[in-house]
Write a structure and sequence with these properties.
mainly alpha, two-stranded antiparallel ribbon
Length: 153
Amino acid sequence: MGSHHLLEALVRAEGSMAAKVLRDLGIDPEAIAEKVDEFDAEDTTDATPEETGARKMELRVTDDEVHLVFRDQATVSLAKTVAELVGGPVTATGPVTGRFVPLWTATNELLVSLLQSLRNEPLPEGADRGKAALLVRRVLHDRLRRRRGEGGR
């Protein structure tokens, strides 16, 4: 979560001091959202190396396969080295099967989380339901929806 998410959440926090100050300065939520969408977080301190790498990922779906594409140089280089050592594609068979379990689990958890965000579903039991967390979650949902409108990027 970057400072831009917090900024959008602050201006949308109905009745808060921050929202009042920002509105009194003539700043509205839509103007902030539009301006945030113009900038690239990679040019700021908000972008961690992990987020920068993640932004280069893509999930492609065919009839019966899902392809998780990594484009960051560090991951591509590591994958090439591993593939060279095993002499071809790395499959989850034999002694390395267990090493693929965390990847499978994380991918499925990510997909469920994306579905909940995109459908604006309620948080699961035990999740943080604090006012700030709900505001930020709403901002993240709105941001995903806006990005889908830009061709799904």
